[in-house]
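USER:
I wish I could look at a protein chain and see how it folds. I am handing you a single protein, as its sequence and its fold in token form. As I understand it, each token names a local backbone shape. I hope you can help me see how the letters and the tokens relate. The protein I mean follows directly.
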Amino acid sequence: MALVVADRLQETTTTTGTGTYTLAGAKSGFSSFSSIGDGNTTYYACSDGTDFEVGIGTYTASGTTLARTTILTSSNSNNAVNWGAGEKDIFVTLPSAKTVLEDASNNVTTGGTINGRNLSTDGSKLDGIEASATADQTAAEIRTLVESATDSNVFTDADHTKLNGIETSATADQTDAEIKTAYENNADTNAFTDALQTKLNGIETSATADQTDAEIKTAYENNSDTNAFTDALQTKLNGVAASANAYVHPNHSGEVTSTADGATVIADDVVDEANLKVSNTPTDGYFLSAQSGNTGGLTWASPPAGYADSDVDTHLNQSSASSGQYLQWNGSDYAWAAVSSVGGATGVDFNDNVKARFGTGNDLEIYHDGTDAYIASAASNIKYGGSGAGANVNHIFYSNGYQRCQVDRYGVDVTGNMYASGSGSFGSSSSGGYRLYVNGDSRFTSSMQCDYNITSNNTMYCNQINVAGTTYYGGGYYLSYSDDILKQRIANIPEALSKISQLNGFHYTDSDTVTDLIRGTNPDGTVNLVEKETAQKVGVSAQELEKVLPEAVGKTLSKQSATETEYLTVDYQRIVPLLIEGIKELKTKVETLETENTAIKARLDALEA
């Protein structure tokens, strides 16, 4: 670490408190403190225009900081200034206390070792004296210096000691052989001679002279070339019976087989009567009976007496049976038992295509064919519920986890789409009733005719009609209620013009997706053939309209399965209120502009006059 002073080094700092300065960069026209060098010290001065501080600082390149190493002078009684917020100037300086000046008498006074000396005269004398030279060296010190000099060739104490250790008439020209002979002939040297070398060569590596019996035995048995009689061989020998030979069992084939010392196996159906050990002579009609007390374990015996019909009747105990019972084994004998009722906790299981039949002529069948389930009747109608007063129960039908239809005493509620093919009708076929029927097939493009209004108290009502294609009205117009009595007003539509500006009116034609929706699929899986409409239409984007007027945007019918897609719809008549408010806003703007234009025109006329 060195003390470095450089010219034109000045930076700013916003450091607060009494800690290390963080340097914020060089001021215009000056250089940064990086010229001081990492780890070096310098003289610095810092001021905010009111307070000041002069001292010695240590510069650190990492983080560009200057530590307050020593405070020389400051506005805080020569202590570190406790800086407040704001920018301060900090720069390299040369403090007056650290400046060496020549006075009027050409003398220089310093705070160190130079004090009024004649540097010209004293300097010449000083140049002739070596560094660290003294005038009071003792003889011992001088001797030490002489002996330490490598070029003095002096006879030192060490040389004297070495000379004392050399015998009289000693020479320095002995050969290796002479030295070896003299060494080996010395009885007190314990010399390592050639004879000892030969003896050592005859001893194996790692050989010891203190091996125990167990160690010698282990080494002996582990030697693969010794044919040693080991403990393992001793154990094997103990397991061989006296007079045992080396007989090897042969292999046998045929009706009786064996392999080496393995088990002997007799093939099936090869042991005849002559080979059986039976204790007596057979008699025709006898059977072999196990007799553990006889030689061979088998004996020929006569069969036990058979049962007569009367014995069977007695054993079955017919008198205890009731009509409809069945014979059941109870663990020790047969006994009559009642047939358990079917179902309950155990249920009744039928395999595929096994039918549960009902009726005298098997008129109703319920079964599963492995793919579909059937409730079939070939002779009569199938009725659900009943026509009695106590039959007011609901019948709910599900498909794919969704409720599709509910039948109750009020009618039929259908969730989802209803398809009709061919000519069909719903309702009465008489001239006084109402009918809704489709001519042709179930396509939406087929005509739908309503001969009579759907009315209640002579008023026509319709909750909702969902049509994927074009709807035609031949009898006039349809209305939606708008009486103030039926409404609770909230507020007029705000910023109508801004919302209208976000909409686009455009020409378009139907996409293939619309064609697919109109086409539809029949219940039998066939697809209705409908040509794509190519006529140009006008409209707006439901997505754009939903952002500014969501009340005019709806969705298609509720999704009936996870795979169906919902599409947005637009109620164009609900856009009318937005247009009305937009026209009103536009009218207000136009009237304002007309008023301003009239005022401007009046001013121009006044200026021209």
Summary: The radius of gyration is 63 Å. The longest strand covers residues 65-74. DSSP finds twelve helices and 27 strands in the chain. Residues 428-470, 472-477 have pLDDT under 50 and may be disordered.
